[in-house]
Specification:
mainly alpha; 2 domains
């Protein structure tokens, strides 16, 4: 898979082929693997994509684009801030999808994507809903008798997020 990535093959194609290869070459019954899939979480995550696609079609109008341009997203700090806030409102992956239509109009789209990638990833630690990974961990912890409250996560996540975002912005 790594070789294919470096040869410039599309990421989605490599991932699908790699996953299929693993399923075919392992002695584990695929049915056992399918039973381990967290279907409600998968449906919720898929639903996020549907909602964001609907949001993009219904809300992202020329007027919205003009309003967004007033946020000065060419500024890395502003873009990171907007990304961080969105990541904690709708989770980090949908936040990136919401920002997608605005990036090509920025003065340096490549740098903007780097800022969005950094900020959405790190901001996902701010609150429990900032990343689907946080929800997965807390959901799995409950199955084992451990409760991770919103505030317990926030006490650790908020300072960690602010520190790593500041470091990331300095680095970029």
């Amino acid at each position: 898979m790594i070789a294919l990535f470096f040869l410039g093959q599309p990421v989605a194609k490599v991932a699908i082929v790699g996953g299929a290869f693993l399923l075919l070459t392992r002695r584990v019954n695929p049915g056992k693997l399918y039973r381990e899939i967290d279907w409600p979480l998968l449906v919720m995550f898929g639903g996020l994509f549907v909602v964001i696609a609907g949001f993009e079609k219904a809300v992202v109008t020329p007027e919205t684009a003009a309003s967004i341009s007033r946020l000065h997203l060419d500024n890395a700090l502003a873009l990171a801030g907007v990304t961080a806030v969105l990541s904690n409102l709708v989770s980090n992956v949908p936040a990136v999808l919401v920002l997608k239509p605005f990036v090509p109009n920025l003065s340096d789209p490549q740098r903007a994507w780097l800022v969005i990638a950094m900020a959405s990833t790190l901001a996902g630690n701010f609150t429990m809903v900032g990343s689907v990974a946080n929800l997965i961990v807390s959901y799995r912890a409950v199955d084992r008798g451990i409760t991770i409250s919103f505030w317990a996560h926030f006490r650790v996540g908020a300072p960690l997020t602010l520190a790593t975002l500041a470091f990331g912005l300095l680095w970029l």
